[in-house]
Amino acid sequence: MFVLSATVYYLHKKAAKNKNPHAFVRSVMAGTFIKLVVIAIAVVVYLKLAEQNKSVYAIVAGIGLYFIYTIIEVKSASRLNKQNGN
After folding, report:
1. Considering only Cβ atoms within 10 Å of each terminal Cβ, which end of the chain, N or C, has fewer?
2. Using an 8 Å Cβ cutoff, are 16 and 80 in contact?
3. Radius of gyration of the chain (CA)
4. How many structural domains are present in the chain?
């Protein structure tokens, strides 16, 4: 999740330099969507591989990490947007 968030932050930084303000909004929305899809795929893979040893707490923890990383991402993206004057 950290590597994914770092990659998304790089995309935000690159989009913040673009003169088109919609590019930055698209990068924030795309980053959130990409992380959501990765978490969903991870949950499906976990459910397929775990069979009898499924843990609801592990799934809730993964979703909790998604929310924490998303909140941090949006805060840092809006701070980045203010710094670039868009």
Report:
1. N
2. yes
3. 15
4. 1
Range of the domain at 74: 2-83
Q: How far is CA 69 from the centre of its chain?
A: 6
Question: What are φ and ψ of residue 20, in 5° steps?
Answer: -80, 115
Tens of pLDDT, residues 38-74: 888 988 999 899 888 888 898 899 889 888 988 888 8
The answer to whether 25 and 45 have CB atoms below 8 angstroms apart is no
User: What does the chain look like in DSSP terms, one character per residue?
Assistant: -HHHHHHHHHHHHHHHTSS-HHHHHHHHHHHHHHHHHHHHHHHHHHHHHHGGG--HHHHHHHHHHHHHHHHHHHHHHHHHHHHTT-
Taking the whole predicted model, whether its pTM rises above 0.90 is answered as no
Angle separating helix axes 21-50 and 56-83, nearest 10 degrees: 170
